[in-house]
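Preliminary data (for renewal application), oxa(dethia)-CoA complex.
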Amino acid sequence: MTRYSRITGTGSHLPPRRVTNADLTAQLAASGVETSDEWIVERTGIRARHFVDPGMFASDLGAAAAHHALEAAGRQPQDIDLIIVATSTPDMVFPSTACILQNKLGIAGCPAFDVQAVCSGFVYALTVADSMIRTGAATRALVIGAEIFSRLLDFKDRTTCVLFGDGAGAVVLEASDEPGILATDLHADGRHVGILCVPGHVSGGAAMGDPLLKMDGQAVFKLAVGVLEEAARAALAKAGRTEADIDWLIPHQANIRIMQGTAKRLKLPLDKVVVTVDQHGNTSAASIPLALDSAVRSGRVRKGDTLMLEGVGGGFTWGAVLLDL
Ligand code: UT7
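Predicted structure:
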């Protein structure tokens, strides 16, 4: 009998501090940086994002999301035999956020590691967990995207600081006789390292270089729509399905215009696209599981639906996961 992996529970967590465009515009104006709610909504679709307060780490957000996913799956932390955390904003240089989170869940022994693929991190992590489950290396995994991008933002750079937010989303992925995950498709192109990066590094106990986010937004935008279409088509072809089989497109939540462009190329109506960028901003690796959980909990996405999850971001990285919920 073929062994598959299947999502049995979803969860998410947002830090309580909600920052609207009006809040952010006022904060930036105080330091001489000019922006507006109109510009942000028109160019990105973002209306609000959540920011953590001091003392909160990616493992805290991820552990809260994991608890919700475990509850939805009817599982206990002790039932988990693999933890993968997708993050570009780890608690520490090392050990991994996954190990810190494992300890916060009160369990020990199972493998736990981070995946660093920036905004594609969740589809990368889900693909790794799917592979490990299908080969028998794991049976019941927690796959988490957790990010605190607010700490990477240059609040003097209006072209980036209005775009990102903090949050976490999680799924429980279990071995199953039925799919589950139907096909995955991952890519990277390191020739584009410079278009979205945090170029600093740690040396001699200090941050060297620039530790804040830099992005050539237009270059990212142009690449994103094309590769998202390609990855979706590749995953569909591997699974022997077509666009018509997709009930919901759940793309990385960076910009409503990228999502609209991708949906158009895949000939999907916009009401089949899960959109949370308006309320969450771009939460990098957390954005897809946050959007998935919000759609599941609102009752829009249901068991049996066919979902296309798609990530794109720094690296340059991109990928898709096609699954039956
Ligand atoms: O998560 C990883 C993936 N990341 C992404 O997908 C991001 C992809 N890129 C984008 O979403 C868009 O390129 C942005 C939202 C970043 C920018 O939108 P755009 O339509 O490409 O704007 P632009 O960069 O062409 O800027 C247009 C104008 C410029 O002024 P001038 O040169 O025309 O006078 C900018 O200086 O808008 C100005 N501008 C702003 N104005 C008010 C840039 N940022 C702001 C701002 N408020 N926050």
